[in-house]
């Protein structure tokens, strides 16, 4: 499995995510109950979903490191970069959740 294949998949995921965010940009956000579309969630629910999926993502990256021979230095750096993305996403969603909560109280 090459890094090019992973990059193509990541681009596809980002494109679909951007399309869904555009489609649901004016819709009411869901804060309770099940919701399939990530773009329809509030920042609090997005943060919770990111936090619950983080261990699964880390296990996937560890498995990819061992089973797909990511032991070369560029691949290892790419894997570490991919591990930082959900953490950045979590902190961004936390910041936005707190910001929106503050705006509601004002």
Task: Please tell me about this protein's structure.
- Keywords: Membrane, Transmembrane, Transmembrane helix.
- This is ATPase.
- The chain crosses the membrane at residues 6-24, 50-68, 80-97.
- This protein has 106 residues and is mainly alpha-helical.
- The protein has one domain (3-105).
- The protein has helices spanning 3-23, 43-67, 73-105.
- Helix 2 (43-67) runs antiparallel to helix 3.
- It is elongated, with a radius of gyration of 16 Å.
- The N and C termini lie far apart (51 Å).
- The relative contact order is 0.11.
- The model has no long low-confidence stretch (mean pLDDT 86).
Strand tally is 0
- Evaluate the radius of gyration: 16 Å
What portion of the residues fall into strands of 2 or more residues? under 5%
The average pLDDT value, as a whole number, equals: 86
Keywords: Membrane, Transmembrane, Transmembrane helix
Organism: Bhargavaea cecembensis
Protein name: ATPase
List keywords for this structure.
106 residues, mainly alpha, elongated, transmembrane, transmembrane helix, ATPase, membrane
SSE order and pairing:
Layout lengths: L2 H21 L19 H25 L5 H33 L1
Helix pairs in contact: 2-3
Summarize the structure.
With 106 residues, this protein is mainly α. It has helices at residues 3-23, 43-67, 73-105. It has one domain.
């Amino acid at each position: 499995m090459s890094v090019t294949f992973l990059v193509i998949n990541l681009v596809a995921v980002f494109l679909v995510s951007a399309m869904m965010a555009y489609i649901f940009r004016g819709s009411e956000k869901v804060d309770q109950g099940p919701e399939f579309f990530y773009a329809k969630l509030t920042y609090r629910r997005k943060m919770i979903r990111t936090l619950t999926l983080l261990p699964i993502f880390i296990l996937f990256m560890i498995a990819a490191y061992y089973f797909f021979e990511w032991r070369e230095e560029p691949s290892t750096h790419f894997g570490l970069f991919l591990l930082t993305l959900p953490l950045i996403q979590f902190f961004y969603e936390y910041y936005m959740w707190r910001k929106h909560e503050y705006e509601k109280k004002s």
